[in-house]
Amino acid sequence: MTEKYIAFDGKEFDNRDECLIYEKMLEFKKKAPERVENFYNKMGKDYFNSDTPITIPESVKNCGTELGYLFSNIVSDLKTVCLDHSIEEIKNYVYSSLPDDKDLVDRFIDWIEIEEDVTIKKDWATALKNVRYGKKLSRPIRWSFSDRDISILAKLHKSNKFRKKIEDLLTDCNFHTECSDFSLGRYDEYIL
What is the pLDDT of residues 29-50, one digit of tens each? Predict the structure, then answer.
């Protein structure tokens, strides 16, 4: 007969480690909004020079917050920070900021995804040069651009570099207005 492990909410597991991770996730879920709020405020001060406190809305705090949602916002900000700092530095920063939650950080933050995104966005020209079609970059960047990204793409397009690939990428990511404006030579509102 195999041993069963029972989490404090009654859920059964065949594996002790899975049970412990599950219990840790339940415990984190209770404290997640406060911990994420504290982490955001620390990161805001340390990397965005912001003293404006970030507050998780009560509606999020009270609705059995999905950890994936909270961490997706963290990942988005981490990608921005990693443009100017090494991924190892940021990884160490996250682990030291959430020391009791390393297992959960590893479960919800895909460092390889962050590295792919940042590698492309640090050097758009090389990334575009290395693909046959611009849309091949859509998935690694998760179909999203910052204002900085659009500005860089506008400058490249304006200088007649990778035009077809940029238009292909913008179209695939549903940035149709930007694609249209670029093809019509309207760059001013995009170039920072």
Answer: 777 777 777 888 888 889 888 7
Rounded Cα–Cα distance for residues 74 and 97 (Å): 12
User: Strand ranges (DSSP E) for 3-151?
Assistant: 5-6, 12-13
Maximum mean pLDDT: which of 16-20, 93-97, 122-126, 142-146: 122-126
- Would you say 34 and 65 are in contact if contact means Cβ atoms under 8 Å apart? no
Burial 13-49 (b: 16+ CB within 10 A, else e): beeeeebebbbbbeebeeebbebbbbbbbebbeebee
pLDDT at 146: 92
Rounded-to-integer distance, Cα 188 and Cα 130, Å: 27
